[in-house]
Write a structure and sequence with these properties.
heterodimer, A: mainly alpha, rod-shaped, B: two-stranded antiparallel sheet, 7 helices
Chain lengths: 167, 252
């Protein structure tokens, strides 16, 4: 078999090796760099997407938190209002009850007082009548004569008036 | 002891004679180059099978690492504007490394043929010149030869031409020296074992002397340097210089 020289330049081999290098370049581009580049790009996109999604979720959570806090504040305010109203109602009611009780007590006392006054008046009248009778008896006995009824009464009245003034 | 180191074998020569180029021959260099290309392409296809976005296999991680390394190597040394050059440098490096290391399988390295390196270096030279003209214009490029003074022009032309020649010869010389030294070692070890066993008298010594027992082991150690180290190193140097020359050419 023929051999070429150990150190030699063969034009055709140079051309062929140039072609081989170009073909190798295309093959390595097609079968290594293209698929790997695509997969790296895909991974980059996915990572970007995940970051974006995470940011969206975070914003959503933030909005939820804000609305929740707003609701909570509203609820707290409402509860405060309800409590205040209830306290006011209770205070009003107790006030009213106290007033009613006081009114009632006053009425009872007034009634009692009027009763007492009536009783007193009655007693005074009875005493008046009795004293009148006694006085007439005494006077009859003293004078021993029957004075006219009219004079008699006038006398008694006078007497009682005097007694009343004196007492 | 008889050692014969020859160039690549010629398998078939087409009978047509082309002007300048001469006759086209299918040589060992070309056949092994095709094997190397098939191996590299097969490896690429195998590495990039069922790629996934997440939960990737070790194989895919390795493929991604290769691409990233190539990117970092080119962009890190030459800058962002040479990103388009990454596949070329990767192809050059892969072809060179696999061509150098295929000698471990007993095939003749395509890089043990100066024509291969001449093709690569010539291409790189064209790329460098193209880059220089693109950077400073055809006038600026030609004017560069007359600097610092007009009298320096011949030397500048020489140094310019030295670039591809040194690039090609450095690579070729290292690979060829590995082949020569390997042949010398095998030859001398065979001669040594023959001399050793011929000390045994009679037919036994005669038969044993034909078996190069000493060739087992010793060349393997030396091949770590002459095949593995030199093979990878020369491919690396070739690519590194290519990038450096191009980056220099792109500077204003």
């Amino acid at each position: 078999m023929k051999v070429q020289d150990l150190v030699t330049l063969v034009p055709w081999t140079i051309v062929a090796q140039l072609c081989n290098l170009f073909i190798q370049l295309l093959l390595i581009k097609r079968f290594l760099f293209k698929p790997i580049g695509e997969i790296l790009e895909k991974r980059r996109q996915k990572a970007d997407e995940q970051i974006r999604e995470a940011e969206e979720a975070k914003a959503q959570a933030q909005a939820m938190k804000e609305s929740y806090e707003k609701d909570m504040a509203e609820a707290r305010q409402k509860a405060g209002e309800i409590l205040a109203t209830a306290q006011k109602n209770a205070a009003d009611q107790s006030e009213r009850m106290l007033q009613e009780a006081a009114g009632e007590a006053a009425a009872i006392r007034a009634r009692a007082q009027s009763e007492v006054a009536q009783e007193r008046r009655k007693a005074v009248n009875e005493a008046k009548n009795e004293i009148g009778g006694i006085a007439m008896e005494i006077a009859g006995k003293v004078i021993e004569r029957e004075i006219s009824e009219e004079d008699h009464r006038k006398l008694i009245e006078e007497f009682i008036e005097n007694v009343g003034e004196a007492s | 002891m008889n050692i014969d180191i020859t160039g690549a074998r010629i398998f078939y020569t087409f009978p047509f004679d082309f002007p300048i180029l001469g006759k086209f021959s299918i040589t060992e260099t070309l056949v092994v180059s095709w094997i190397v290309m098939a191996v590299i392409t097969g490896l690429c296809i195998w590495l990039t099978r069922d790629l996934k976005v997440e939960n990737i296999s070790k194989r895919q991680a390795f493929a991604e690492m290769l691409v990233e390394t190539a990117n970092n190597f080119v962009v890190g040394n030459a800058g962002e504007k040479f990103r388009g050059l990454v596949p070329f440098v990767a192809a050059l490096f892969a072809t060179s490394v696999f061509s150098n290391l295929i000698s471990l399988l007993g095939l003749r390295s395509p890089t043990a043929d100066l024509s291969t390196e001449a093709a690569w270096a010539g291409l790189v030279f064209v790329m460098i010149t193209h880059q220089k003209i693109k950077t400073s214009g055809i006038g600026g490029y030609l004017k560069g030869y007359t600097e610092p003074i007009f009298i320096m022009t011949p030397f500048n032309v020489l140094s310019e031409l030295a670039t591809p020649i040194s690039l090609a010869c450095r690579h070729f010389g290292n690979i060829l020296s590995g082949i020569v030294i390997n042949a010398l070692i095998y030859g001398s070890l065979a001669a040594a074992s023959a001399a050793l066993f011929r000390l045994i008298p009679g037919a036994v010594g005669e038969i044993l002397s034909h078996i190069p027992v000493l060739s087992v082991g010793v060349p393997a150690v030396l091949s770590v340097y002459f095949d593995w180290f030199t093979g990878v190193m020369q491919a690396f140097i070739f690519c590194m210089l290519t990038i450096m020359y191009l980056a220099n050419a792109a500077e204003e």
